[in-house]
Task: structure prediction
Amino acid sequence: MRRPIVAGNWKMHGSRAFVSELLAGIKEGVTACEGVEVIVCPPFVYLDQAASLLEGARVALGAQNLCQVSGQGAYTGEISCDMLRDMGAGHVIVGHSERRNIYGESDALVAEKAIVAAAAGLTPILCVGELLEERESGQTEQVVGRQLDALLQREEGAAALEKSVIAYEPVWAIGTGRTATPEQAQEVHAYIRQRLAQISQNLADGARILYGGSVKPGNAAELFGMADIDGGLIGGASLKAGDFLAICRAAAS
Ligand code: 13P
Result:
């Protein structure tokens, strides 16, 4: 039995006041989400504030990105895995489609980040997913397979994947209100699990694969009810405590 996860990716949203208010709301309602691993991923600059506010709460903290170089050094504007650990983060999103498509992160760079994060004791939330034109031209499995292979081709790849959570986020469903149908999502999740089974059946059976892309309180239960969907990575709806908690409850039931 895989424990479901609901993770909120706040992206570039928030202020000190907003963080206080949102986390107060989430803390209050999270007790009703028994059995679900709840994670919030605020922008870097609010991690410290969030860690203080979440002390003692059953909500874990994650970051949205990290530098592929660990330790310290001349990397202007970058944040290392050690710094994230120091701030109290236990998870880090790696290879979100916005990082891949706006900032040009390659499959190889994403793989490196996942390896560095896992080696530092962080849980990578590795995002994969196809663009609309890739889906429409029947390349979904090829794209997702290629994104996973970038990690698996590395010597440390399987070990990093064992410590990771995978998030399938079809790019055409992100922030568009156009959710993948539960069947469409399930199909890709099953494909990912089958791909992991080629490495090891244990890895495939234990891996938690989240769906992301316009998950809302109204569609969460149906998505999470599918055999290979183990929770969600939530964007817009994670910015409202009520909506986020409703999605967490959907994962609990
Ligand atoms: P939305 O839930 O806003 O579509 O965003 C999904 C996402 O990108 C989470 O990482």
